[in-house]
Amino acid sequence: MRKGVMRPGHVQLRVLDMEEAVVHYRDRLGLIEVNRDSQNRAYFKGWTEIDSFSVVLREADEPGMDFMGFKVTTPDVLEERKQELIEYGCSVEVIPAGELDGCGERIRFDSPTGHYFELYAEKEQPGKWGISPKNPDAWPEELKGMRATRFDHCLLYGDDIDGTADLLQKVLGFQLSEQVVDQESGTRVAAFLTVSTKAHDIAFVRHPEKGKFHHASFWLDTWEDVLRAADLISMHDISLDIGPTRHGLTHGQTIYFFDPSGNRNEVFCGGDYTYPDHPVVTWDAEQIGKAIFYHDRVLNEAFLGVVT
């Protein structure tokens, strides 16, 4: 059941060196730098996004994710979800409007996997970057790097992925689209959830430590764009994790790499879609190599073990 949660809206990442990180996200990944605030946080957006930002960087002593935010349809829905989160047992904090520049009031809450999430209803909407909302051109000629079009999803690592999946489904209306299950024990190893018609808007992998960040993912239009991203990774000696390749889960075409602080990024295209009447797709845990890297059919150690 949909509960007025529309889409992933933003993610705040910790970086070790702000200027190095800005070069990576602006010039290599190709996001648009839109702002620096009074806390020296840097704000970015994909060029197709109508909201004022989707990625925030904060300089810190260790990398990782501070929080991920989702946009809801109205302030009334925001209040309704806040009350349901409190009733569910979450620790809920109200963040006043303007704490993130251009963003309205936010409701921050914890989760069984130790991650922090936010809901918000209002954010400034300057529209797509570089093109007019009337008779728009196909794309802006000034785009840089990989030309990422939007922030798409995060993959997070934590212990109680069943608990967080239950929270997202019951309170926020997410749908379980795909999963990886150990057939002998019945343990769910990974969960992919969507609140839209995408293959997933957030995903989780079971991991002994709470609150770990695996990657933030950004959408590209075509497989040729993913291959071009691979060229740029080599041209600029960006640390490569794996790819280009295809996922079995969701069937997206992908490449993984690291920002200068060690946070993993993904750019991808393609993939499945999910409607409310679709059954859950299940992969056997013994096939997890093929599920994640369909061509190689094995997992590399960095993909399994490197999290921030």
From TrEMBL:
<dbReference type="InterPro" id="IPR054560">
    <property type="entry name" value="XylE-like_N"/>
</dbReference>
<keyword id="KW-0058">Aromatic hydrocarbons catabolism</keyword>
<keyword id="KW-0408">Iron</keyword>
<comment type="subunit">
    <text>Homotetramer.</text>
</comment>
<dbReference type="InterPro" id="IPR000486">
    <property type="entry name" value="Xdiol_ring_cleave_dOase_1/2"/>
</dbReference>
<dbReference type="GO" id="GO:0008198">
    <property type="term" value="F:ferrous iron binding"/>
</dbReference>
<comment type="similarity">
    <text>Belongs to the extradiol ring-cleavage dioxygenase family.</text>
</comment>
<dbReference type="InterPro" id="IPR017624">
    <property type="entry name" value="Catechol_2-3_dOase"/>
</dbReference>
<dbReference type="InterPro" id="IPR004360">
    <property type="entry name" value="Glyas_Fos-R_dOase_dom"/>
</dbReference>
<keyword id="KW-0479">Metal-binding</keyword>
<dbReference type="InterPro" id="IPR051332">
    <property type="entry name" value="Fosfomycin_Res_Enzymes"/>
</dbReference>
<dbReference type="Pfam" id="PF00903">
    <property type="entry name" value="Glyoxalase"/>
</dbReference>
<keyword id="KW-0677">Repeat</keyword>
<feature type="domain" description="VOC">
    <location>
        <begin position="150"/>
        <end position="270"/>
    </location>
</feature>
<dbReference type="InterPro" id="IPR037523">
    <property type="entry name" value="VOC_core"/>
</dbReference>
<dbReference type="Pfam" id="PF22247">
    <property type="entry name" value="Diox-like_N"/>
</dbReference>
<dbReference type="InterPro" id="IPR029068">
    <property type="entry name" value="Glyas_Bleomycin-R_OHBP_Dase"/>
</dbReference>
<keyword id="KW-0223">Dioxygenase</keyword>
<dbReference type="GO" id="GO:0018577">
    <property type="term" value="F:catechol 2,3-dioxygenase activity"/>
</dbReference>
<keyword id="KW-0560">Oxidoreductase</keyword>
<protein>
    <recommendedName>
        <fullName>Metapyrocatechase</fullName>
        <ecNumber>1.13.11.2</ecNumber>
    </recommendedName>
</protein>
<feature type="domain" description="VOC">
    <location>
        <begin position="7"/>
        <end position="122"/>
    </location>
</feature>
